[in-house]
Amino acid sequence: MAASSEKYDIVIVGAGPVGLLLSVCLARWGYKIKNIDNREVPTLTGRADGIQPRSLHLLRNMDLKRPIMAHQPAKVYEVAFWDPQSGGKGIHRTGNWAACPKFIDARYPFTTLLHQGLIERVFIDDLHKNGADVQRPWTITGFNNDGQDKTYPIEVNLKHMRTDEKEIVRAKYLFSGEGARSFIRDQLGVKIRHKDPISHVWGVMDGVVRTDFPDVKMKCTIHSDHGSIMIIPRENNMVRLYIQIASSTDKDFDPRKQATPEDVQASAKKILQPYYIEWDMVEWYSVYPIGQGIAENYTIDHRVFLGGDCCHTHSPKAGQGMNTAFHDALNLAWKIHHVEAGFANRSILQSYEAERKHIAEELLDFDAKYAALFSQRVPSAGEVGAASEDNIDGAANEFVKVFKSSQEFTSGYGIFYGPNEFNWSSDHSAQSHLFNPKGNTVRVGRIMPPANVTRVVDANEVQLEQEIPLNGSFRIFLFAGSPSKTQRAVADFATNLQKKKSFYSTFAREDIASVSYHERHNPHSYFFSICTTFASPRDRIDISKMLPPILARYSDHVYADDVWDPKVPDAKAAAHAKLGLDADKGGVVVVRPDGHVGCVVTLVAGSGTVDALNDYFGAFVSKPIGNGKPQAQL
Amino acid sequence: MAASSEKYDIVIVGAGPVGLLLSVCLARWGYKIKNIDNREVPTLTGRADGIQPRSLHLLRNMDLKRPIMAHQPAKVYEVAFWDPQSGGKGIHRTGNWAACPKFIDARYPFTTLLHQGLIERVFIDDLHKNGADVQRPWTITGFNNDGQDKTYPIEVNLKHMRTDEKEIVRAKYLFSGEGARSFIRDQLGVKIRHKDPISHVWGVMDGVVRTDFPDVKMKCTIHSDHGSIMIIPRENNMVRLYIQIASSTDKDFDPRKQATPEDVQASAKKILQPYYIEWDMVEWYSVYPIGQGIAENYTIDHRVFLGGDCCHTHSPKAGQGMNTAFHDALNLAWKIHHVEAGFANRSILQSYEAERKHIAEELLDFDAKYAALFSQRVPSAGEVGAASEDNIDGAANEFVKVFKSSQEFTSGYGIFYGPNEFNWSSDHSAQSHLFNPKGNTVRVGRIMPPANVTRVVDANEVQLEQEIPLNGSFRIFLFAGSPSKTQRAVADFATNLQKKKSFYSTFAREDIASVSYHERHNPHSYFFSICTTFASPRDRIDISKMLPPILARYSDHVYADDVWDPKVPDAKAAAHAKLGLDADKGGVVVVRPDGHVGCVVTLVAGSGTVDALNDYFGAFVSKPIGNGKPQAQL
Question: What family does the entry list (chains A, B) (predicted)?
Fold first, then answer.
């Protein structure tokens, strides 16, 4: 151990989507990061380009949607299916449906297509605002969790790619966002398991084309007598073509089979008949073999973590790689933060692999199922219609069911985390009968549904689920129902929050006496933000009269549930209704820092509501709470 | 005349909102501009800050809304009224209503509050993209429309403010965006007429405050026993206070009356009782006398023009100064462009003063009426309710009527231009009976109402009125009704557009044979863009089969009128319905480059529709059109 080694909270290897999102979060939250990348510059061409609806929603929560959209990306609202006509007359359209159908309650019901390099630069610009940057071209040559420094147990060896300059640093954490070929993963001896034995060789070509094919600005899946192709529109009149060049199911399969750009263009021309296609320019072209694979572990020691393509590879067809990477990074970021900030037990880091590996398994299952679904037959118009209906449970047949769950999964809104310390279930150590109030339709482990409300202080119509930025805090949504009926319950909620051993008081800010008057999100604690929403018109809400000081302090986070919503057209309080909460009685929804719901609790007079939350948080926080008993029983 | 003088299309003096918007438009459209300003840097503090709903809509059309919103401006959705309580108990809220009520069909029903300097920088950044910039600190010392150069008739003398360096240039046009104290206006001998003899001394203070006054994040008009104040929220927790310090109606009126920041703060504290207010910091403070005034002319020779504050001054209360300036600049920009590009007769420049001076007169009338309205009495809750209803014609009494028209006017959506060559009326030289089809509710001279439609090529839901950017072209909206019923009319429309002497063919691009495949807006002519909207679901529209090539060439501008709109909930084709156009038969709406409707024409089989448009455009274009007769009769 070099005594003089520079020390970092985390060394992040790789500045693709997963590494960058992790860097951005931790840099914003005050951590000292070192993010290296072995490339001289951000991605120039090619690679991932699809931001799914839920990911865009997340980027909005990070205040990064605007710079993304400033690049005027393509937006895919519909997917068109084309198939061969009989008699060699070329292809014709056999169906099309919404990329993110109405039954998914998405803020942004479309996929956003933008070159990965532009997305990376948005993250890098954000790093600069926090005094951080990516160091290039550097690579990792070794690491060792030698524990010689208790606080910074890992030694990391780095090397400049051109000058061979070496650097040894120490870190609390090491993260591999290196992509499919990961030095760190290999060093850890983590194996890749192949779920589906079939592998494919894909060709991908980005370029500017001229064509009379009418759907060139939509996502298309095209089968023809001459092969299959997928079309993805992009910014700046660019079009991406995916073409399957070989499959391990082929008799003469060669995973190293190559194809020139001219081969691919010639194939595309045949496949698209009777339409023509010509290229003005080709920006990027690549042929690569790909198989399904999943890392057996995402970490060994809970100090060195893997994420992104390093953990899961699959076909690019569903556009899930970058999106899964974003959520890997997000999931790990707030957990590291909660441990390092002294809020949560170190054991929560175990849930990173548990939660994210499960999603990767689902992704691979989905990948296989989805492929099978469409290789069998073309769905009928009626099936597509049924599959696009509002009600996800109204699934008429197997096809519609699989299709719907696929659509929900790929949008990102189908992702849910199973029961654990964060995601309440009847197996959780917190056992109050107030959990999961009757009638509520909130799905624990999933994203809280979007809802528009009116902010009381300035009468702005806002997106409630976006009101707390991605700041690492748990979001306590107090749905306060009808003011006249919940007056007592709200007062008691506040009183019990303030009790010495409550989850809220226990993790009060040390500087609570000198917090800025203008602090909006974290006036009392860095780990909680509270939003109060009344089922009442805005002009009937008087914050100082209707809310106890601890809640009134969040004056920017008091809302009126008085905005009409087409999803619940007859509801008087749409946000309450969307969550299945009684418009009189309300309820409390706890949302994890990443936007997934942790638990839902009945709002009652007395201490029960806060007691239940004490029990809930008691399952993973670092200090005893709730009357001194970490897991008090009611 | 210095033979070596540099030559410009236009010299623009002043880089405030009016000068910058003019510069941005003309620089984008390829003109050589020289924009000078006598300040060293853009506005640092103070000045205008309110972007009204229609102005934001315009900035969106210029693709400048995103950088404006990136500054996270305050948004005012409601205005609160506070008045004294009896018994010296201080103020209480007596009413509040929407800043842009629902009866106004606005895309953005709020006022956007942002420091003028930040707005200026957005324009300046855009200038840079077009290779232009503002030269500082330079001033104008003289000018002369000496005609010694026929193309560049004006000599302009400029001086650097620090070095006294002098420059003489020649220009086609000279524009004064100098503000209330205009050297150019004075040199021209243009007088300011004072409509309302009353003048006021205002104090204005921008700062960050602490207060328990609950409406500090809304626009407030506060009357108290200790005086009156207006509150305007701003970005970054800033608050602007306007306080009337003296009025010429006071017995001892002194237009030079001063007040220190401490005086104003002391007054504010008294006025706001029983609430407290304290300042963390004061960013800007100013006291200035202001009276209503309007320039008697906006130009003398149609070469030297005035605009913005140089032409109209009034109270800052309604937040109209910068917004009026934007529209002055916009109005002049496209008219200069159409003359200089050889499209329109030079005589159209006369409509600049006619159209814009009329708006300034209305503004001053409104200013006086609005002030009187609220000095008389506080409106009742019922009146406010009635005034916010959807239907502008359902006005119950005089108050509601005046209030509604005031709201519409200040939003920018009430602005309309009276009959002239651009704004068709029964007095227009074009006399076809096809103008102004029965049932249509489009109001010529006003903004085309917003409508969402689905773009056919990519299934994106888009804002139809925004689909043509501010590119200087007339926008021809072909509402094509039901495809099966308009097939013939659409075909004939296309055929007649292509006739040699049609308005469309006459102004074809010279490079029409080599226009880029990817050109979206101006494939045939720089002066026209065509959007076709069918009253049909998107998936029934086949562009290549349903549209003749001339219209199909605008493949990015073919739309399906299949998006539900809450304003016309029962309509099957909402965009058609909002315009009062028959969903079977459609109609043609011609929109000026600035978004105001020029004329509406019935869509019929035969040559009638295009004949009518030939007559309409024949009234002002520079070449004979329509069978060789500039104003053919049907």
Answer: Belongs to the PheA/TfdB FAD monooxygenase family.
Cis peptide before A548 (omega within 30 of 0): no
Closest approach of chain A CAs to the CA of B318, in angstroms?
A: 18
Is B457 within 8 Å of chain A by CB? yes
Q: How many CB atoms lie within 10 A of CB A552?
A: 17
What's the average model confidence in pLDDT over A142-166?
96
Task: Tell whether B552 lies on the interface with A, counting CB pairs under 8 A.
Answer: no
Q: How far apart are CA A174 and CA A154, in angstroms?
A: 8
Q: How far apart are CA B445 and CA B416, in angstroms?
A: 5
Q: For residues B461 and A388, what is the distance between their CA atoms, to the nearest angstrom? A: 17
Residues of B with Cβ-Cβ distance to A233 under 8 angstroms:
458
The span from the CA of A9 to the CA of B5, in Å, is: 63
Please report the ipTM that was assigned to this predicted complex: 0.91
Contacts of A215 in chain B (CB under 8 A): 457
CB-closest option in A210, A460, A544 to B212: A544
Q: Is residue A277 less than 8 Å (CB to CB) from chain B?
A: no
Cα–Cα distance, A469 to A520 (Å, whole number): 11
Lowest mean pLDDT among A64-78, A590-604, B91-105, B155-169: B91-105
Among A553, A547, A557, CA closest to A491: A547
* Total-model pTM: 0.93
Q: Does B125 touch chain A (CB under 8 A)?
A: no
Q: Are A208 and A279 in contact (CB under 8 A)?
A: yes
Determine the 3-state secondary structure of B293 from DSSP.
Answer: strand
Distance between CA atoms of A548 and A487, rounded to whole angstroms?
A: 10
Residues of B in contact with A280 (CB under 8 A): 517
Q: Spell out the alpha helix ranges (H) of A381-482.
A: 381-387, 398-411
CA A493 – CA A606 distance, rounded (Å): 8
Q: Which residues contact B479 (CB under 8 A, 6 or more apart)?
A: B533, B535, B561, B575, B576, B579, B581, B586, B587, B588, B589, B603
In chain B, what residues touch A458 (CB-CB under 8 Å)?
74-78, 217-218, 233
Residue B427 phi/psi, 5° resolution?
A: -90, -5
Q: Searching chain A, which residue's CA lies closest to the CA of residue B460? A: A77
Rg of chain A over CA atoms, in angstroms?
Answer: 26
- The verdict on B458 touching A (C-beta cutoff 8 Å) is yes
Q: Which chain A residues have a beta carbon less than 8 Å from that of B233?
A: 458
Distance CA A498, CA A502 (A): 7
Taking an 8 Å cut-off on Cβ atoms, the answer to whether A460 and B110 are in contact is yes
CB contact under 8 A, B76 and A544: no
Do the Cβ atoms of A457 and B542 come within 8 Å? no
Structure tokens belonging to residue A153: 């147990």
Residues of chain A with C-beta less than 8 angstroms from the C-beta of B75: 458, 460
CB contact A460 to B (< 8 Å):
yes
Length of chain A: 634
What's the CA gap between B603 and B480, in Å, rounded?
8
| Distance between CA atoms of residues B511 and B300, nearest Å | 37
Length of chain B: 634
Segment B156-171, tens digit of pLDDT: 999 999 999 999 999 9
